[in-house]
User: Fold this.
Amino acid sequence: MFNEKLAKSLFLIVLLISLLIPIYFYEQLPERIASHFNFRNEADGWMNKSSYLFLHYGLIFFFVAIFSGLGYLMPRFPASLINIPNKNYWLNDKRKNFTFTAIRALLFYLNSLCLLLFIVIDYLVYKANISGTNKLWSFSWFIIVAFLIATGYLTIKLIIFFNNKENQTGEE
Assistant:
């Protein structure tokens, strides 16, 4: 179902890309860059490029800390704070480790999706600023829709997975 090793590997690759892309584009950017765009994809907010870089890395750190922290701290939470279908079944002693491994994998996938969203949006912002048009791609809203669909898919997959009381660990 949720392969933690694959999820973590994907996350590390996406994290590395999200850390390197701003470095690649930094020298090409003007000192003052468009950082906010209206519904017509036209720039309506500006900041200096070093502040934008600080914001980029701050958001990455925030999301990595939240998702990774939750994944590794959740097993220490009392069961009353964990909301999954069939909680008593999945959090019993026989299935608890398996359950938290699956949740950690899901959180790695969700973190990867968030970082991918940042990568694509930042790429569009960099291109708009480097080209001098200060206008985003016309179909930039497609990116948000794709992100929401992917997040919805993972959420539905999680709900279906934990609604199934079949023994997923091979134990009876």
About this structure: The CA atoms of residues 95 and 169 lie 7 Å apart.
